[in-house]
C-alpha cells in the first residue's frame, strides 16, 4: 500500500478501519519494533492520528509498548488471530499428521494455504538435521516455484492461474521454471498425479514434494509438503507418505466435530 | 466484555477502534464462524454499524466470508499477528529447543507467556502417545494450577502476584492448590529451585515440569514446560532437561541477530 501522506493539518478521508490496518501493516519481519514517529512516517498518517490510534491499540493489547517507548504487535492480536480457521485452526487439525510425516521422513514438513495469488505458510516442523528452510509462519511466497504453491495453483480457480501465469515468473535459481507454458504443463501433471515436485526452484540444494488437502466439498483448502536436500532421496519415493498425511488431514477436517472441547493445559 | 446494546437508532459513543475490536472479540474457539446478525447480537453493536465494519474488514482480509455468508477471522489478521514478538516471534526462536525436548522426553512440550493475570499458550508440540493435552494456541488459562503459570507468577511483579492470590483460586481437581498461602510458598520454591512442578492440578492424570525463559535484562519473558502422565516418570528427573531447553531459548533470544534473513520456503 503506498503511503498516503497527509499534509500538516491536512484531512485524511480514509476510514478509521483503513487507518488502523494501514498502521498495523507497517510492522514487518524486519521491523517488528517501531517508535511512534517511525509508525507515522511509514504509514503516512498524521502524527496526531497515530498517537491517538496507538494509544487505543495499546489499551487493548493489540500493540505493546516496551520500556524504550517502542511499539510491537501485541499478544491480544495473536489471541484473536489464533481463531482464524485457515490459519491456526487448520494447523491444530494438521499438526498430528505433520508430526507423523516428520517422524517418518525426518525432513522439513510445511503446511500452506493460498491467499490471493500467493502461498501463506501456516505451519512448519523443521528438522535440525534437515536442509535449512527459512519459512516464516504467516509469511508469503510466490506459488509457481514451491511445491505447496504448485499444488495450490493447480487447484486454484482458472482466473487465479491465468493471472499468476500472465505475470512475470520470478527466477530464484537456474532451475526455476519461468516459462508459463511449462508451468501450465506441470500444473496439469500435478492434477493428474495428485502430488507436486518442485525441484531446486527456490534454492539449488533443496526440493519439495507436496500434496493437496481437501475440504468438505472436495475443494483444495491447503497443501502439505516435505522439503529435502537435493540428492538425498528420490523425491517421488516420498510422495506416498506426503499424500497419506495430506489425506489424513483432509479426513480430520471433514470429520464431525467431537465434543472434546475441554481444555487441559498444564 | 458485557454487550453494550444500542437502542434502535441509538448512538454508540465508543470509538471506532473500540467497536472494531469488540466486533472481532465475539469470535471464540466455540464460535469461529458467525453470521452478520450473530456478530451484531454478540457485540451489542447496531446492525448497520456491524454491516459497514464487516464490509471494511472483509475487503482487507481481516475477516473472510464463506459461501453461506458466514464470517470467520481471516488470514490477513494471522499475517499481522505472526509478527508479534511475544507470540510467533518467540515461537520461532524456541521451536528447535522445544523439538529437542520433545525428542528426548516424547512428552507434550509447551511454551507460554503471561498476559495480565493469565498464561497464554504460544506453542505446543504434542506427542501422539503422550497424555492428552488440549491446550489451544492463543488460549488463556489461570496461572496457579499450571507449571507454566507457576513459573510466570513466581517471577511476575509483586502486584500481579498479589492480585492473583487475592482472587478466588479455581479448583480443577482434588489436587488443585486453592490456599493462597500454600501457592505463595510454592512460588518461593519455584524461584529458589529454578523450576516448577504442578502435580495433577488441572487434570488428575497429568502433571507438568516448567522452567523460566529469560530475556536480555534477566527478566522472565516466558516459560517452557513438559506435561506428562502421572506416575510415568519422576517429574523432578525431567527438570534438568526442561531447564536446559529453557536456557537454550534464553540464550537464543539474547544472541545478536544474524543477518540470515533470507527466505527459503518450498
Automatic annotation (TrEMBL), chains A, B:
<keyword id="KW-0805">Transcription regulation</keyword>
<dbReference type="InterPro" id="IPR029016">
    <property type="entry name" value="GAF-like_dom_sf"/>
</dbReference>
<dbReference type="Pfam" id="PF01614">
    <property type="entry name" value="IclR_C"/>
</dbReference>
<dbReference type="GO" id="GO:0003677">
    <property type="term" value="F:DNA binding"/>
</dbReference>
<dbReference type="InterPro" id="IPR050707">
    <property type="entry name" value="HTH_MetabolicPath_Reg"/>
</dbReference>
<dbReference type="GO" id="GO:0003700">
    <property type="term" value="F:DNA-binding transcription factor activity"/>
</dbReference>
<dbReference type="Pfam" id="PF09339">
    <property type="entry name" value="HTH_IclR"/>
</dbReference>
<protein>
    <submittedName>
        <fullName>Transcriptional regulator, IclR family</fullName>
    </submittedName>
</protein>
<keyword id="KW-0238">DNA-binding</keyword>
<dbReference type="InterPro" id="IPR036388">
    <property type="entry name" value="WH-like_DNA-bd_sf"/>
</dbReference>
<dbReference type="InterPro" id="IPR036390">
    <property type="entry name" value="WH_DNA-bd_sf"/>
</dbReference>
<dbReference type="InterPro" id="IPR014757">
    <property type="entry name" value="Tscrpt_reg_IclR_C"/>
</dbReference>
<feature type="domain" description="HTH iclR-type">
    <location>
        <begin position="14"/>
        <end position="75"/>
    </location>
</feature>
<dbReference type="GO" id="GO:0045892">
    <property type="term" value="P:negative regulation of DNA-templated transcription"/>
</dbReference>
<dbReference type="InterPro" id="IPR005471">
    <property type="entry name" value="Tscrpt_reg_IclR_N"/>
</dbReference>
<keyword id="KW-0804">Transcription</keyword>
<feature type="domain" description="IclR-ED">
    <location>
        <begin position="76"/>
        <end position="255"/>
    </location>
</feature>
